[in-house]
Amino acid sequence: MSKRESYGAANLETRAAHAGRDPEAHHGAVNVPVYHASTITFPTVADLKDKQARRFDDVYYGRYGTPTTQALDRAVADLEGGHWCVSVGSGMAAVSCALMSVLKAGDHLLMVDSVYWPTRNFCDTLLRDMGVRTTYYDPLIGGGIRELIEAETKLVFTESPGSLTFETQDVRAIAEAAHAAGALVALDNTWASPILFRPFEHGVDLSIQAATKYIVGHSDAMLGTITMTDRALFERVKTVAGQVGHAVGSDEAYLGLRGLRTLPVRLRQQGETGLAVARWLQGRPEVARVLHPALPDDPGHALWKRDFTGACGLFGVLLKPGPSPKAVAAMLDGMSLFAMGFSWGGYESLILDTTTSITRTAGIWTHDGPSLRLHVGLEHPDDLIADLEAGFARLTAGA
């Protein structure tokens, strides 16, 4: 680490601006250069063997990292409060790599019932075929998770807030119960990013992010990260990532680093705008409930206020029963600022109909009306509200 990298700033805004940078090593360049490299050559046999022995920390072969990807790993680990990070090609790659690094045939996984659907699908197909048994649990279980832990339970997986329904989990209580039984804890920290939730201060062992979302922040690169504080766990994850062929392109890593520099500013703006839109939605006659943990009447607000330092721009909306699928389609089809598209975390606002996408097996989802997921971007809240107001007019006309 150079003098430039050892800045030691306590504030996340400063860390985001400087983490992973080393201008002295790159002729004074502010940004880490993009290294396009697969083959790395060595001047001597001794040097080759030395780099091979230090493959977890040095540049050895392109699949295991370049100076660009390693800069991203250092920066994300710094911001999340971890010691090591492994970057992979997508958020789903980060989830699957973390799970395969910890679990083997005969093991038992406790998976939160509100998890991102592709994670559920991985557990119910590929992980099952590998001989790993998954039990889904109520996201609000808290310390009661201890009742579900078995001798074979090796990992408890959390996602807070939950995907589509935005329940806030008591990660601290879950981690205490899991660790007492000898199990590890993983967290999908994508909603909060490294800025809004400090995973390792709450007992998390593996923090997973779809860096495609807020870290990249511009809807132009696929990226995932796995951060940890334990060296042995890092080497295990890094080994599995290499064995299954995960290799982050240096261009994508560069875009992730670029996004990190403005992450605190973007999150603050999108969080404020998101709350403004959410509060407006609470007053609409078509809305039954807004699913946003930063709202005081949200069931998870107390936990969110205890554990999080802010909110992002992603939340859900439950509409009152009545509108037909055709009416909902009319609302969404005519939006001018809210686009329909998967993913989120970029500068643009998005909206999706999630009515048929909410899956529960540990409990029952009881809402009878349509549901939406909104991602609020960097547009002005008045313009977004006007777009939604016109959308509600179409919804009512088509109901």
UniProtKB/TrEMBL annotation:
SUPFAM superfamilies per the UniProt record, alphabetical: PLP-dependent transferases
CC cofactor: pyridoxal 5'-phosphate
GO molecular function: cysteine-S-conjugate beta-lyase activity; pyridoxal phosphate binding
Residues recorded with modification N6-(pyridoxal phosphate)lysine: 213
Pathway: Amino-acid biosynthesis; L-methionine biosynthesis via de novo pathway; L-homocysteine from L-cystathionine: step 1/1
Keywords from the named record: Lyase, Pyridoxal phosphate
EC number: 4.4.1.8
Reactions accelerated catalytically: an S-substituted L-cysteine + H2O = a thiol + pyruvate + NH4(+); L,L-cystathionine + H2O = L-homocysteine + pyruvate + NH4(+)
Pfam families the record matches: Cys_Met_Meta_PP
GO biological process terms held by the UniProt record: L-cysteine catabolic process to pyruvate; transsulfuration
Gene3D superfamilies: Aspartate Aminotransferase, domain 1, Type I PLP-dependent aspartate aminotransferase-like (Major domain)
UniProt similarity note: Belongs to the trans-sulfuration enzymes family.
PANTHER family xrefs: CYSTATHIONINE BETA-LYASE-RELATED
Protein name: Cystathionine beta-lyase
Organism: Roseospira navarrensis
Top-level taxonomy: Bacteria, Pseudomonadati, Pseudomonadota, Alphaproteobacteria, Rhodospirillales
